[in-house]
Amino acid sequence: IGKVISKLDATHKQIKAPLKARVDLLDGERKRIKDQLLEIQDSIKSQISEHEAKIQAEKDELIRRAGALRALREFEFPPTIEQVEDRIATINATEIDDSYGEMKAYAALNKMESLQILEPMLAGLKAKAEQEAEAERARIEAQRKAQEERKSK
Question: Which of 60, 72, 53, 51 is nearest to 101 (CA)?
């Protein structure tokens, strides 16, 4: 039985050897083709990723530009009349055109809302400045009258 098993194993090995060589050749060729396809796939994926990143960067830039109109209505400290006038002029000089792409409506909304905030703010600042000027004129007039009264006594 041992000799039969040994003969069986030898025959099996002899028959299998050329088949195994062909299978190894086939596996090697499959691996080579698969590696080339994976390289192509990776190249395509990286191109897609780069393109998506570029699109996102462009979108972010459009959002930033449109948001800049919104930021013009915010002040860190109480603004002066000149600062508000400058911002209103900047906003009015900004043309909302096709360069804003899909953010055109957002930019137009920010422009309109900013003007709706800044214009009344400017009017209030001017009214306050006028009141302060009037109060100063009244104070000066009162001082002048007081001086005249002292001189006439």
Answer: 60
Nearest to 114 by CA among 78, 72, 143: 72
Q: What are the structure tokens assigned to 64, written together?
A: 């930033």
Are the C-beta atoms of residues 69 and 87 closer than 8 Å to each other?
no
CA 24 to chain CA centroid, nearest Å: 53
Question: Residue 77 has what DSSP assignment?
Answer: S
Per residue of the chain (153 residues), give pLDDT as tens: 999 999 999 999 999 999 999 999 999 999 999 999 999 999 999 999 999 999 999 999 999 999 999 999 999 999 999 999 999 999 999 999 999 999 999 999 999 999 999 999 999 999 999 999 999 999 999 999 988 888 876
Residues 6+ apart with CB under 8 A from 66: 100, 103, 106, 107, 110
- Interacting residues of 98 by C-beta distance below 8 A, sequence separation 6+: 104
What number of other Cβ atoms are within 10 A of residue 96's Cβ? 18
- Scanning the structure block, which residue is given the tokens 């390289």? 39
Gap between the Cα atoms of 92 and 85, Å rounded: 10
